[in-house]
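Structural biology now treats backbone shape like a language. To illustrate, our science desk offers a sequence and the tokens encoding its fold:
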Amino acid sequence: MLRMFPAVLLLCACVSETGLAGIVDSVSRLDKNFDIADRNRDGLLSRDEANAGHVPFLVRHFDAIDVAKRGLVSKNDLHAFIRRWLMQSQPAPASSVGSGGE
């Protein structure tokens, strides 16, 4: 849990309070649906389990979430995908933009 703390702080800095509440709610729902779909309680979902468990976000992005290409995804895999997705959608910090006088 402590390893996620810097990522959570960064996420908080990048997202407004209203946006953050929506993200937290969405991730909480995904986690709950993940648990429901995990019929054998092994902490992993196959594409078939995700389909049968009605987790459309996970099904839609399964290949991108399954970066190890093992045919299974964990909640950690799902959360890592969400962090990557959120960070890619953020504008570049002003300090990374050229000064124009180069």
About this structure: The longest strand covers residues 44-46. Strands lie at 44-46, 72-74. The mean pLDDT is 79.
